[in-house]
Design brief:
By secondary structure, this protein is α+β, with helices and mostly antiparallel strands. The protein has 4 helices and 6 strands; from the N terminus they run αββββαββαα. It folds into 2 domains: about 100 residues, Topoisomerase I, Chain A, domain 4, CATH 1.10.132; about 70 residues, 2-Layer Sandwich (Gyrase A, domain 2), CATH 3.30.1360. α1 runs antiparallel to α3, α1 runs parallel beside α4 and α3 runs antiparallel to α4.
Amino acid sequence: MSEKDVIKDTKPRMDTVIEDFRRKLSTVRTGRAAISLLDSVLVDYYGTMTPLSQMASVHAPEPQMLTVQPWDQTQVAAIEKAVRASDLGLNPSNDGKLIRIPIPPLTEERRKQLAKQVHEIAEDHRTAVRNIRRDANERLKKMLKDKQISEDNERDGLEEVQKLTNTYTARIDDLSKSKETEITSV
């Protein structure tokens, strides 16, 4: 095993952090309707907490409206209750078959809360990237101690891991800034 193997293992782990960050950002509400907004909603389906996406089809027919069409019509009330109970601040209504969820425009205070939430999510993912860096650095130092690599190779490996860390942290910052711009623009 060489320092190149450590770097090869580190890159996909950091890619996973970026993908998770994108997924989390997609659930943060903006002023527009997006079906990913309801990804975090869990519905009590006969005693089992089930993701909404596994119980119904979700559509965004208008920029300010989501519709939820349950596959089991008996679950309309349970789905409506779960959406109302979620921390999304949405107020659904149903006509017995279809649940309509109007997306109200965001207030200035709510925009600031959401921007703060984006900052927290970004910081969690920056920490995850730094933890991956720490693991890689520890592996490199252990390889040096076990005389599997030379000091020059260890130094090169540490520099390469730091470059990866800087690149992925910058990607998190860029994604965070674009999401914050999306939230704060009226």
